[in-house]
Amino acid sequence: MLKYPLSEEQKILIDLVTQIGEEYIKPHALKWDEEEVFDEKPIKALADADLFGIIIPKEYGGLGWGSFEMCLAVEKLSYYCAGVTTIYAAAFLGSYPIILFGNEEQKKKYLPEIAKGRKLCAFALTEPQAGSDAFAIKTIAKKEGDFYILNGMKHFITNGGIADIYIVVAMTDPAKGARGASAFIVEKDDPGFSVGKKEKKLGLRASVTTELFFNDCKIPKDRLLGKEGMGFVVALRTLDFGRCGVGAQALGIAQAAMEVSLKHATSRIQFGQPIYNFQAVSHTFAEMAIKLEAARALVYNATKYIDSGAKDITGISSIVKCFTSDVAMWITERAIQMMGGFGYMRDYPVQKYFRDAKCLQIYEGTNEIQRNIIARELIKYYK
Amino acid sequence: MGKIIVCIKGVPKPGMTKVDPETHTLKRESLELILNPNDRVALEMAGRLKNNYNTEVIVISMGPPNVIPLLKHVYALGADQMILLSDRAFAGSDTLATSYVLAKAIERLSPFSLVLMGLKSIDGETAQVPPETASLLGIPSLTNVKNLFMENDKWIAIREIDYGEEEVEVTPPLVASISPTAFDYIRPPSLKRLIEVKNKEPLIWQAKDLNLDLQKLGLQGSPTQVIEVFEKKLEAKGLILEGNPEELVEKLLEIFKDKGLIKL
Amino acid sequence: MLEKIELENLPKGSILAYGEFYRGELNSSSLEILSPLKEIGKTLNKKLVLVCLIDSLKDIKNLEEIKKSLADEVWFVINEELKDFREDLYAEVLVRIVKFSRPYGFFFPATKIGMSLAPRIAGTLNVGLCAHVNSLEVKDNQVIMARPTYGENIIAKLISKSIPVMATISLGAFSIKYGTEEPLMKEVIFPKDFVWKSKLKVRNFAPFKKKPTKLSTAKVIVAGGRGLKIKENFQKLFELADILGAEVGATRPVCYEGWVEEERMIGISGVTVKPKVYIGFGISGALQHTVGMENSEYIIAINTDKEAPLVKMANLALIGDAEKILDLLLKKLGK
């Protein structure tokens, strides 16, 4: 209900994402969800529209904008389909490591291709025994002359198989524990790299999630991002930036759910009147609106802080991710309830929003882990 | 390869057509115009050819000044140059008068390799302007083109007729109108170019810039004329008829005839 | 053997109709358009001529149809360069014929070929051309043509101030009628210096296979629901669709019952349609279905239940048994 003042260019951005959502996504979203298929057309449209380069610096072919604009795009796109948005937003998880830690050659080699949307990205940290406990990763990267040989596997990786660029965190020195990990750029065609099965998911079904296998995967040493031992620094710093994207994604899903159920509530006649007339219903929507506006204010406020060049963004981005994903879950669940039986039917989109929203409480660090992070940052702050 | 010229048209948003009660022509000036949807397909063809052959794409449109935002939008779809053909004298043009103006403008942009247009507009829906313009230019035309590429300096087109598809070789220059079903995927505008075009304006050519014969313009240059217009009234909802099947079927047949579903 | 006639000697002031030949066969739409044109010709006292461009007389497949047609004369132009349809050459030939025979009108069927050819001729002759005309009449010695504009509920009546009056005529707007006398058939001889050249060359032709269901773009839809009671009744909708030039749609329950393939399902889990006319036989109008067709321009519902949602939403509702009405309708339409 609050309209944020936007610049001319930000308005152009939102209109363009809206056009793409309306033309390329809206007619097919439910079908992609039902059939769990990845369609490259909306991705192609996002690429042709220059939307993959929002946060990539101008000198590498991007628009050189910040988290604020990234969130504007992600929120709007998520309104149409959070699954497609997940494929798209992975580009940011792929770009940030290179923008923040890459050397000039790496930036020149990869960023322009990412900006053009020609190469999709994936961020590969999680392993079967290392989810929340990311430090428990076992994939090894052994230096051999001018190469690194990687051995191990990752799972639950978004864009597995369809990405060209994989940011992989592996142990270069297991003895050093958390300080012994390094981040690498693995390319789709690298020898010894293969993709495992595609997972069957509860939601975000338009996106592809797979296992990745490294069997003596040989990559040139210039694929190391930053220095050896910086693996978790790269990962965590990237996630600091990425979390606002999840926040924006949550906003888009929640907005769509609220709108669809509101439309239903105001036209569904029971007992001779629209059900919105009953306080149980209208108050639920009031609560939705309260939480949504609060979540939105939080996201965009945080992005402004991040874009100002602040260094200590970990705590606030965690708060953003945690709060907004919980809000989206609450709103989507209530939205189904407000639509009654229709909400339960897969012919209607509201159940998809509910299933999509659930993942946001889990990926990019579960909300339990987020609370750990917030608690830790809190005492740092209030020393 | 020479230039590619794309002719686009601003059409009233569907549901908002207004007919001038005196001239019985569509009023364009005061309306919100959108890009004729079929023109986007033509622009996609131009975009793909531009990618493959690295040529210049010039977009022209005949219309009132409120077409300018559309031309700018088309810049974001890959046009290198935007030209608006605008003059009060053009108002009320039928397809002949329109083709005359377009042909003159296209001539002025010579030499060129290809002229692309959408198959037809959603307002006039005649599909006549592409071949008509070509005949005034004295060059070949093809309609319902689904694919187009160059081979040994000749255009090879796949075009659809009622019996199937033909592969036709044409000596350039060519005017081609593109089938709406030519592509599975049509690109959206580019964000960078949407921002770039804020600081660009299209070139505007008036009748005098093209040395046009005023007799051939607007209403006076239009041999076809609408003399009367009926607005088919949207029937009020809810006519419920009961009766024996004979009566009901008679009513059905009446409606079928009225709607042109069966012949009298 | 055809009577040969030079260009200069062609009878003047006729009404010409384009006889569209493709691979030796005359398109029936060229015969359809003769019906209204014959009436125009009678009123204005002008001859009706079918003009055909072919490469060889012996390859014509439906000469009998031409002999039975309403045309007073048929003019053939025969040259091997005319084997393939090539707009520029065909237009040159026809323009030549127009220049010499100075017809009153020149009409084309609105086929893809007709729509590609007629504008070139109109442009070269600098005359008006009306498109997709579906009605022609003579008033005060002038031909008045009418055409609808889709999407909007507007019918426009047009005239053309130039001669020849030219128009493309909507396919299916008229039916073929037969003449009482066989037309005079002539071969038009072109001068030796006429250049039979084209900048086009047809390299290949691939004929169409069967066309798939076009429910989403159909202009007329007949749809059936449970009220038709059994599968055999539903199948009769296809006969009706054939007559009306419609596509057949269905509700979810009947698809799941196996009465018809799922591709024909209209509704939230099927296809969304926006036809000009939608006729629902025995469909109650559950939300899942109506969401897929509520934007139809004109809705007809046939149902026994006056309170059914589709009945309430319809422009015209007929309260009766869908099966009975369908049977009677088909009987009346001659099936």
Layout of strands and helices, then pairs:
The complex is a heterotrimer of chains A (383), B (264) and C (335).
Chain A: H1 8-25, H2 29-35, H3 40-48, H4 67-80, H5 82-101, H6 104-115, E1 121-124, E2 140-144, E3 147-158, E4 165-171, E5 181-187, E6 193-198, E7 209-220, E8 224-225, H7 231-267, E9 269-270, E10 273-274, H8 279-307, H9 314-344, H10 350-360, H11 367-381
Parallel strand pairs in A: 1-4
Antiparallel strand pairs in A: 2-3, 3-7, 4-5, 5-8, 6-7, 9-10
Chain B: E1 3-8, E2 10-12, E3 33-35, H1 37-53, E4 57-62, H2 68-75, E5 81-85, H3 95-108, E6 112-118, H4 129-137, E7 141-151, E8 154-161, E9 164-170, E10 174-178, H5 191-196, E11 203-205, E12 224-231, E13 239-242, H6 245-258
Parallel strand pairs in B: 1-4, 1-6, 4-5, 5-11, 6-10, 7-10
Antiparallel strand pairs in B: 2-3, 7-8, 8-9
Helix pairs in contact in B: 3-4
Chain C: E1 3-6, E2 15-19, E3 21-22, E4 25-26, H1 28-32, H2 34-44, E5 48-54, H3 63-68, E6 73-78, H4 87-101, E7 105-109, H5 112-125, E8 129-133, E9 135-139, E10 142-149, E11 154-160, E12 165-169, E13 184-189, E14 200-207, E15 220-224, H6 231-244, E16 247-250, H7 252-256, E17 277-281, H8 287-290, E18 298-303, H9 309-313, E19 316-319, H10 322-332
Parallel strand pairs in C: 1-13, 2-5, 2-7, 5-6, 6-13, 7-12, 8-12, 15-16, 15-17, 17-18, 18-19
Antiparallel strand pairs in C: 3-4, 9-10, 10-11
Helix pairs in contact in C: 4-5, 6-10
Task: Write out the strand line-up for the largest beta sheet of chain C, numbering strands in chain order.
Answer: 1-13-6-5-2-7-12-8
Which regions of chain A have little confidence, pLDDT < 50, spanning 5+ residues?
A: none
Q: How many helices of chain C in DSSP terms? A: 10
Taken from the alpha-carbon principal axes, the silhouette of chain C is: elongated
Radius of gyration of chain A: 21 Å
| Rounded Rg of chain C | 24 Å
The helicity of chain A comes to: 40-55%
Name the biggest interface: B-C, 80 and 88 residues
Overall, the morphology of chain A is: globular
Mean pLDDT of chain C: 90
Task: Return the domain count of chain C.
Answer: 2
Task: List how many beta strands of chain C DSSP finds.
Answer: 19
The CATH topology label of the largest domain in chain A is: Butyryl-CoA Dehydrogenase, subunit A, domain 3
Oligomer: heterotrimer
Number of domains of chain A: 3
What structural category do the secondary elements of chain C indicate? alpha/beta
Find the CATH superfamily of the largest domain in chain A. Answer: Butyryl-CoA Dehydrogenase, subunit A, domain 3
User: Separation of termini of chain C?
Assistant: 42 Å
Distance between the termini of chain A: 38 Å
- Strand order of the biggest β-sheet of chain A: 1-4-5-8
